[in-house]
Specification:
It contains one helix and eight strands. The protein is mostly beta strands.
Length: 136
């Protein structure tokens, strides 16, 4: 697989049912999956090697991003979701890989700006349910 442009990774939020809108101005994005491990090691584990219990851990996903808002609609949608404590469906598009869709809650929303620069924001989303994966 050839290298991919980071700008082609898209972060989208569901405004109306089944209508995903790209969050404007996201410059950097990350997606990480986590799986909590459950240690099943016991006194008779071979040579005291750790044993893990398959399928017993809690799975989670985290999306982070930062950039600039280019329109008032995406700013209002995200700000409203944060202040209302809403769990909304989000989607991240990874070109030549697939799309991850699922419910997320905004755990962090930061606004910043320099005197001689643009206003910026950063956002962190934590999964709030089952994720689905679709091939593009």
């Amino acid at each position: 697989m050839a290298g991919q442009r980071g700008r082609d990774v898209l972060l989208k939020i569901e405004g109306a049912p089944d209508e995903f809108t790209t969050v404007a101005g996201i410059r950097s994005k990350t997606l990480s999956f986590n799986s909590g491990l459950v240690d099943g090691t016991h006194t008779q584990s071979p040579d005291a090697w750790r044993e893990l219990i398959a399928g017993a851990g809690v799975k989670s996903a985290r999306i982070g991003g930062s950039g600039v808002f280019k329109d008032a609609a995406s700013d209002a949608l995200i700000r409203g979701a944060f202040f209302d404590g809403q769990v909304l469906n989000w989607q991240i598009i990874l070109p030549d890989f697939g799309e991850i869709t699922g419910p997320f809650m905004i755990s962090e929303l930061t606004y910043a700006g320099d005197h001689n620069g643009e206003a910026t924001f950063s956002i962190t989303l934590e999964s709030a349910g089952q994720m689905t994966f679709g091939v593009l």
